[in-house]
Amino acid sequence: MDTVTAQSKGNYADVNGLKMYYEIHGEGFPLVLIHGGGSNINTTFGRILPSLAKTNKVIAVEMQAHGHTADIDRPLTFEQDADDIAALLKQLNIAKANILGFSNGASTTLELAIRHPQVVNRIIVASTMYKKGGAQPWFWDMMANATFEGMPQIYKDAFIKINPDKDALYNMYKRDVARMQSFKDIREEDIKGIQAPTLIIIGDNDVVTPEHAVEMYRQIEHARLMIYPGGHGDYLGEITTIKPGQKDYAALPVIEAFLKEN
């Protein structure tokens, strides 16, 4: 039977055979935060989470093989991640939630809206594509020739700070690379079927092309689109993109306003 147990530094839920780590911050309507590949709660959302927790019940998760959540013997897929989030919400007795996903986390968010529409209120998908052709060609070249040495050191340090097992770190890296190398397009009919109000966010120098963001905006019936100057996560304060002394994050007020809409 699935159970939820409290831990001193957060919480763990047994979902679909996975011991998933999550944290709850603040009060209000539930908002799930889903981090990017190779990342964790803090590296993706650490700069904006305190602000979001002022007006939302933030449920920040760490997905299979990432952060505090150990890997298990099953495929690593966006569909499975979406099923895990849905199972977690059920355990927490949350009927509906807003979802904010970044990069790989946004791919999971799209799958959640497709596979479990009943649990989704509004979604925010940041720096993601629904088909392979939506990413810059250099991204797929990088994935084809990926090396562990090329993984941002700040991600490695963040993982080791949580889990000193270097084999687990390398396993996470291999899993994430393999998932992207075998990336499968989401069917257009599934994208068009998303009914949740959707905010699409990218940078104009992102992994995702502006043209693809516009295409996705046209496909989703109740979509809004924001394109910021900058790269992959600048607008959120993602840890690999923040500048020294940076305290303002361009997307935060837009996200907060979108979440307050009726």
TrEMBL record:
InterPro entries found in the cross-reference section: AB_hydrolase_1 (IPR000073), AB_hydrolase_fold (IPR029058)
GO molecular-function terms, A-Z: hydrolase activity
Taxonomic superkingdom: Bacteria
Q: Which Gene3D superfamilies match?
A: alpha/beta hydrolase
Q: Which residues form the AB hydrolase-1 domain?
A: 30-148
- Hydrolase: is it a keyword of this entry? yes
Q: Which UniProt keywords apply?
A: Hydrolase
Q: Name one Pfam family in it.
A: Abhydrolase_1
Protein name, UniProt field: Alpha/beta hydrolase
Which organism does this sequence originate in? Chryseosolibacter indicus
